[in-house]
Input
Amino acid sequence: MVFELLQAAATAAPQNKFGFAEALEQGGFIAYATVIILGIMSFGSFFILITKWIEQNKIMRQYKDMRSSFWRAPSLKEGAAKLEKNSAWRQVVDDGLAAEDQHGKMVNETDAHDWLHGSLASSVNSINSRLASGLPFLATVGATSPFIGLFGTVVGIYLALIAIGIAGSASIDKVAGPVGEALIMTALGLLVAVPAVLAYNYLQARNKRIGELLNGFSTDVLANINSKGAVKPAVAAAPAAPAKPAAAAPAAKQ
Output
């Protein structure tokens, strides 16, 4: 009997006609298209945030490793061998060494210096451009997704007005669906835009820090090349190996 009562109560319970799926059905093709576009934007934003964050962390880790070993090498070529292949820091050194080979072929010393400096600057700029890839997408999402959501809102309000006109009265059951769909579109647009803007600012600040480190490193490489290896940045001494505990003296026999 208890089961029958529960089944009868469930049958008598009013069905929810104003859920998310029902709101999308009220909006029709425009609502579905808006949600799909915002979903693609949101997925792309989080994908760029995660991949760029991993890439930036890798470069920062390589910088710490480079500072502790690179400048202790007797030459740039030997120091470059200690760096990871295809790393940003290895690229700056390799481009500097390649420019040094061409440097000696130029007659005018001023032009040769400008050539070397420009080659290193071009190397740093190419790295910064690679780090900045994907950020325009975040900026675009942050700027346009609220308006895409607003477009869905306008359509929802329009459908609500049509429902009122057909019914001849502004009863809540006629306008709740379209108005609810309109509010959902606005909320989704903001939900997509805010993380994209925050991710853009966060990644941009980290790229700026990496760019400063790259410029400083390229300056040190340039000074080292021009001085024939005499000029190197101050590097902290390598930590001394811990002393082994002295062996205990054997006990004297009585």
Q: What stands out?
A: The chain has a mean pLDDT of 79.
